[in-house]
Write a structure and sequence with these properties.
It is a single chain. The protein has helices at about 5-10, 30-35, 40, 50-65, 115-130, 145-155, 180-185, and strands spanning about 15, 20, 75-80, 85-95, 100-105, 135-140, 155-170, 170-180. The chain is α+β, with helices and mostly antiparallel strands. A hairpin with a 4-residue loop joins strand 4 and strand 5.
């Protein structure tokens, strides 16, 4: 499969407790439930959604990105209850360097249960096996301990602090950067 077709025909991924699939407008109510939570949005670059209209606007953008073969996220479905509980996927993709950056967000009701590590692990596996990436990286605000822990649990290594790397929500933020290399992935138990 050509790389540009990967995102148009985004493969459904399955883990022990989750299904990662393309998002649709039908996911709006579930997404709004967590995207409107200020605690969930605290460390994101977007503000908490104020109405389902905000969520539908975002979902329309994602659906267009699928159609236009652009990099975007999977929706995360909790198998046990069928609930749409978050997103996870590639935020940036550098084809010439075989490198991508991942991002993710999860409903607060599902925090501290290992779901995000499970989803991120599936995305990393997809990145190395299907996209043939050499490097996958992720960043989080220094204060976002839970996100840093997810990266560590999936085998990513801390590389340093990017000082005042982004301006979001009225302030400059320092970011931690983590990465995992193809050689690390296939040389460890994560393969």
């Amino acid at each position: 499969m050509e790389t540009q077709d990967i995102f148009r025909n985004l493969t459904t991924l399955e883990t022990e407790r989750l299904i990662l699939r393309k998002m649709t407008l039908e996911d709006a109510e579930d997404m709004f439930e967590y995207a409107s939570d200020p605690e969930v949005a605290k460390y994101t670059i977007w503000n908490a959604h104020q109405s389902v209209k905000d969520t539908k606007f975002f979902l329309n953008t994602v659906v267009e990105r699928y159609k236009n073969r652009q990099i975007t996220d999977w929706g995360i479905i909790h198998k046990e209850d069928g609930k749409f509980i978050g997103t996870c996927g590639f935020a940036e993709y550098y084809l010439a360097h075989n490198r991508a950056e991942i991002g993710y967000v999860l409903s607060r009701k599902y925090w501290k249960q290992g779901y995000m590590s499970e989803a991120v692990g599936a995305i990393i596996k997809f990145g190395f096996q299907t996209m043939k990436l050499n490097r996958i990286e992720a960043r989080c605000e220094v204060e976002n301990i839970a996100s840093a822990r997810v990266m560590e649990k999936v085998g990513m290594e801390f590389e340093g602090i990017l000082r005042q790397h982004i301006f979001t929500k009225g302030k400059y933020c320092d970011l931690k950067i983590y990465s995992i290399l193809r050689q690390d992935f296939f040389g460890k138990k994560y393969a």
